[in-house]
Amino acid sequence: MAGVALPVSGEEGTHAFRLDLTAAVLTSVEGDTLVVRSWHPGAAAVRWERQGSRSAARVDG
């Protein structure tokens, strides 16, 4: 994730923050495929897959 944590008023004795995200990325391995899912504000989530030595391919959804 990328962004900024901003302090907000919370209950006495607690610390509360609001996250202002500018990007989120989740990377995982599914079988023999590297999968990268990314999101940016105002855009749909994107999925990229790479298998073996092949170039990464964008897969929508």
Q: What does the model show?
A:
- This protein has one domain (2-11, 22-60).
- The relative contact order is 0.19.
- It is built from no helices and 5 strands.
- The protein has 61 residues and is an all-beta fold.
- The mean pLDDT is 90.
Summarize the structure.
With about 60 residues, the chain is mainly beta. Helices cover about 0% and strands about 65% of the residues.
Write the layout of secondary structure elements.
Elements: E1 2-8, E2 16-30, E3 33-39, E4 46-51, E5 57-60
Antiparallel strand pairs: 1-2, 2-3, 3-4, 4-5
Work out the count of structural domains.
1
**H-E order:** EEEEE
Structural class by secondary-structure content? mainly beta
Task: Please estimate the helix content.
Answer: under 10%
Question: Which key terms come to mind for this protein?
Answer:
64% strand; 5 strands; 61 residues; elongated; 0% helix
